[in-house]
Specification:
Layout (H helix, E strand, L loop, with lengths): L3 H16 L10 H23 L2 H25 L8 H6 L9 E7 L4 E3 L2 E13 L2 E4 L3 E7 L20 E6 L15 H7 L4 E5 L5 E5 L5 H19 L4 H12 L7 H9 L10 H17 L4 H18 L4 H18 L6 H15 L7 H24 L1 H6 L14 H19 L6 H31 L1 H8 L1 E3 L2 H26 L3 H26 L5 E3 L5 H19 L1 H4 L1 H20 L11 E5 L8 E4 L5 E4 L19 H12 L4 E7 L4 H4 L2 H7 L1 E7 L6 H12 L4 E3 L12 E6 L17 E6 L2 E5 L5 H10 L9 E3 L11 H7 L3 E4 L12 H9 L3 E4 H4 L2 E5 L4 E5 L11 H6 L11
Helix pairs in contact: 1-2, 1-3, 1-12, 2-3, 2-20, 6-7, 8-19, 9-10, 9-11, 9-18, 10-11, 11-12, 12-13, 13-16, 13-20, 15-16, 16-18, 18-19, 20-22, 23-25, 25-26
Length: 903
């Protein structure tokens, strides 16, 4: 076999993927597609081995690959074992400890305290926790933040405890699991942080609550953490007057994106160059290229160049905290450098496959990781498609430019390349003959230099296009973004990054020796970064070149990847396969890419039935209503967190981006007919900015106009996107297919010069057939009383009630509940929210009334369907069997009532 490592790695990965497939349904997801792809690749490789090997080698090769698959299967089973009994998640799950109150946690600091825009952050490797007077041994990771009173004080060293990496510390804090949105398609922040060793998070109320218990012992890890801390401080001090430049350099060089503003990060995403802010293979490649170039300039032997490069690369891996993408790139670099020491020119596919195999043996579960999949898919596209194609088209001419004046080298090139050299010399002689004597040679060299530059630029463009093409389905599925100008931006940005990374490390390293030298290098470095930022910002303003789409169907991704694999095979071994396979696979790949970019697929909805989905957006509201004929209305967008005082641009989780939009994309929606805002409190309006950016919107409904910066910003976005703004009041009619709809509140939409209030809420009632839904926003008892006095009881009755104000005791009064007389009450509240929602008093009211209660903090997203005579409901988590699900409640439902549960 010409690519033995590829065959072995694919076989092992296929076995590991199979070992994680406890149920076939786990593969019916976009991230499972590549796992299936590994198994498909293994089958193709086995078939190819069987066809190409001699008779005496076939059985041995197939048995060997099968053995590697079995090893992958076993490795995945071993890696999938449950957490140990003393792991913090197991302790919480088994109720051996409860974290509803502050506890004293003990452990070791993993790193130096991290300065953040709003304060300081600490990561602790737990060793135990004090609970009910006992010290309980515990494993796991705890991340805590201290939010300084102001932005200036956050940088004051005298306000934080004197602790360092490796120190054993004790901290009193209320820790909880990271927030997670339990909706289809939502980003699983909890799993993401767990993969990075963070299982609990907390906010430190005072720095005095964190105390050092014993100092760290000297070691390599402590030394690296100190170096990382010094480099970050050096970046801050060198670019103190240019914080924007310093933030980008911290991200590009040290992997710390904490100081990059959200608007700038969004610009990088819109232009397809966000990978520049994520330390990965590209940064490692730029650094290694610079180190090898330095070795050649100083005339070091290949051995010492490789040794120096590997040592510095190992230090770099430690500096950026051993991130998986950096580890993968460093491992491949080490394989290539070591191979060259043994005078072997390794195939890039084999090198990448060997690195993948080593990583999978160490962690078989990495095969399901999106970053792992994207990394090796990118390498496969470059090594399997771009480089072979360039080797047969452009690179012979690029190689022909070397020593172009030396006629004795012509015979060492291909006939076409040799002819090219002859013609090039002829052209250059003509230019020299028609130029001034002193400029003749310079002009000839300029022509050749221009040709060399053009060919290298073409190679970079081809590689960029192939990367964009190959990673298109996974990028569209994971990030839901199409960036049409990404090849052009990357063509300009990647060379800039290639200059910024080595110059950046040269600047920071020299700063540790002498500040004056560092400032000398810092000036051109800041210019390069500013050029990069201005260029990215300019391209980001072309809105039509970047847009959001739903994830492509699984079948389309499979077809695309199979076609891409066949295209790579036909390019690499065209003499065996023939031109027909190249044309067929290229056509299939192009058609698949076009289908992904245009997304001509219809959204999924239940025809003939009214749908209500109450999404889990934490402590907030977001509801999706779909009419029997497919009209869509989104009511609110969640969004409780506004950022840190003085640093609002560094806000936390955005439910509009991480929960609402992914859910809509999971259903295939690209357009919403109506977006309705009940009132301008942050937990209702915060996520709508992202929704207006990500979808085509027919109308924006707003109730009472109030003095709110968030509302003004939302209206500004709507005006920029030419979305009609309609202010709705009580009695205003609106059409929603066959659904009878009414606005019941507010009584007036006239503007008031005050902050928004819960009683400003837009209240809607939707009736389809014999059943009705009531959506009261955050209406409280004062407005409920007015509504009861001014509205006939028949106009308030509804079988499904979205409980007002997240289950507060000041909403859904007994009188209001009696008038509505619901069968199902849905409460949208955040898990372990600090307000105590839903209030026990309210739950008692609902229980007394015999109402079935569903809650997003417990059940996740809640989905209700009605055909006008029956109700069906389901939950993201199996709907809890609450005490309200009594025989009395069941008897009140229609005889053929269907209620089911799904995970």
């Amino acid at each position: 076999m010409r690519l033995p490592a590829v065959a072995i790695a694919a076989a092992f990965a296929g076995g590991a993927a199979l070992g994680q497939a406890n149920r076939l349904a786990q593969f019916v997801s976009l991230r499972g597609v590549l796992a299936c792809g590994f198994m498909l690749a293994w089958l193709l490789i086995v078939a190819g081995v069987f066809a190409s090997c001699r008779d005496q080698h076939r059985s041995a090769s197939v048995l060997s690959l099968s053995a590697w698959s079995v090893l992958g299967l076993i490795g995945a089973g071993i890696a999938s074992q449950p957490l140990p009994a003393n792991h913090i998640l197991q302790l919480l799950e088994t109720k051996k400890i409860e974290s509803k109150t502050p506890l004293r946690w003990r452990g070791r600091l993993r790193d130096e305290p991290a300065r953040l825009p709003w304060g300081y952050g600490y990561e602790i490797e737990l060793s135990g926790v004090e609970y009910q007077g006992m010290r309980v041994p515990a494993q796991g990771g705890l991340r805590i933040n201290w939010n300084a009173p102001s932005g200036d004080e956050s940088a004051s060293p005298d306000m934080v405890p004197e602790v360092h990496a490796g120190d054993h510390v004790a901290v009193v804090v209320q820790a909880k699991r990271p927030q997670v949105f339990r909706d289809d398609g939502a980003f699983d922040r909890r799993a993401y942080l767990a993969d990075h060793g963070v299982h609990l998070i907390g906010t430190l109320r005072s720095p005095e609550l964190l105390q050092g218990e014993s100092a760290a012992h000297w070691g390599v890890a402590v030394l690296i953490a100190g170096a990382r801390h010094r480099l970050r401080d050096e970046a801050d001090s060198l670019f103190a007057v240019q914080p924007q430049v310093g933030a980008v350099l911290r991200a590009m060089l040290l992997g710390d994106r904490s100081f990059v503003e959200r608007s700038e990060a969004t610009d990088f995403q819109k232009t397809g160059v966000f990978h520049l802010l994520v330390v990965a293979g590209l940064h490692v490649g730029a650094l290694v290229f610079f180190l090898v170039w330095l070795g050649r300039r100083f005339k070091l032997s290949p051995l010492w160049t490789a040794v120096a490069t590997l040592v510095l690369l190992l230090a770099y891996v430690g500096i950026v905290e051993e991130r998986p993408p950096v580890l993968r790139a460093a491992l491949m670099t080490a394989i290539v450098l070591l191979g060259r020491l043994f005078f072997r020119r390794l195939d890039l596919l084999n090198s990448a496959a060997l690195a993948a195999l080593i990583l999978l043996v160490a962690n078989p579960l990495a095969v399901r990781d999106s970053s792992f999949q994207l990394t090796f898919l990118a390498i496969g596209c470059i090594a399997g498609l771009a480089l072979p194609w360039l080797d047969k088209t452009v690179q012979p001419y690029a190689r022909a430019l070397r020593g172009w004046r030396d006629t004795t080298r012509d015979m060492s090139h291909e006939p076409k390349a040799a002819q090219f050299r002859i013609e090039l010399r002829s052209v250059c002689r003509w230019i020299s003959a028609h130029s001034p004597a002193r400029l003749g040679n310079w002009m000839a060299d300029g022509v050749v230099g221009g040709l060399a530059f053009s060919l290298r630029a073409w190679e970079l463009l081809v590689i960029t296009l192939v990367l964009q093409l190959g990673m298109l389905p996974l990028m569209a599925g994971d990030f839901h973004r199409i960036t049409l100008d990404a090849p052009a931006v990357n063509l300009l940005a990647v060379p800039l990054m290639g200059l910024i990374v080595p110059l950046g490390f040269l600047t920071l390293g020299s700063g540790l020796l002498h500040t004056g030298i560092a400032k000398f290098f810092a000036t051109p470095l800041s210019w390069l970064v500013l050029v990069l930022l201005r260029m990215v910002g300019w391209f980001a303003h072309f809105a039509r070149w970047s847009y959001r789409i739903p994830g492509p169907p699984v079948w389309l991704v499979v077809v695309f990847l199979v076609a891409l694999l066949l295209l790579c095979c036909s390019v690499r071994v065209s003499t065996l396969w023939g031109g027909w396979l190249w044309r067929a696979s290229a056509a299939m790949t192009g058609a698949g890419a076009l289908a992904i970019v245009l997304f001509p697929f219809s959204p999924r909805w239940s025809a003939g039935r009214l749908e209500l989905t109450v999404l889990d957006v934490g402590q907030g509201d977001s509801l999706l209503v779909i009419s029997p004929h497919g009209k869509t209305m989104l009511v609110d967008g969640g969004g409780g967190f506004t950022g840190f005082a003085g640093h609002e641009e560094h806000g936390g989780a955005d439910p509009g981006e991480e929960a609402v939009s992914p859910y809509l994309w999971s259903r295939g929606f690209q357009r919403l007919d109506v977006v309705a805002l009940t009132h301008a409190h942050q937990d209702h309006i915060g996520g709508l900015a992202a929704v207006l950016e990500n979808f085509r919107i027919g109308k924006l409904w707003i109730g009472r106009e109030v003095a709110s910066p968030a509302l003004a910003n939302l209206e500004r976005i709507a005006v920029e996107k030419k979305i009609p703004i309609v202010r709705e009041v009580r009695g205003a009619p609106f059409s929603f297919d066959e659904v009878e709809t009414r606005f019941l509140w507010p009584e007036s939409a006239s503007g008031v010069d005050r902050a928004p209030q819960n009683n400003d809420s837009l209240v809607m009632r939707l009736q389809f057939g014999d059943l009705a839904l009531l959506l009261p926003g955050d209406l409280e008892k004062q407005a409920e009383k007015s509504l009861l006095a001014e509205t006939p009881e028949a106009s308030l009755h509804a079988e499904v009630l979205k409980v007002g104000h997240h289950g507060s005791k000041n909403s859904t009064t007994p009188e209001f509940l009696a008038a509505v007389h619901p069968r199902i009450a849905i409460i949208s509240a955040g898990e372990d929210n600090p307000y105590g929602h839903p209030n026990p008093e309210l739950l008692s009211r609902l229980d007394t009334a015999g109402v079935r209660v569903l809650r997003t903090d417990r059940d996740g997203a809640i989905h209700v369907l009605t055909d006008g005579t029956r109700l069906e409901f389901s939950c993201f988590v199996p709907c809890a069997n609450s005490p309200n699900a009594s025989a009395h409640w069941l008897a009140r439902l229609p005889q053929n009532q269907q209620h089911h549960q799904q995970q």
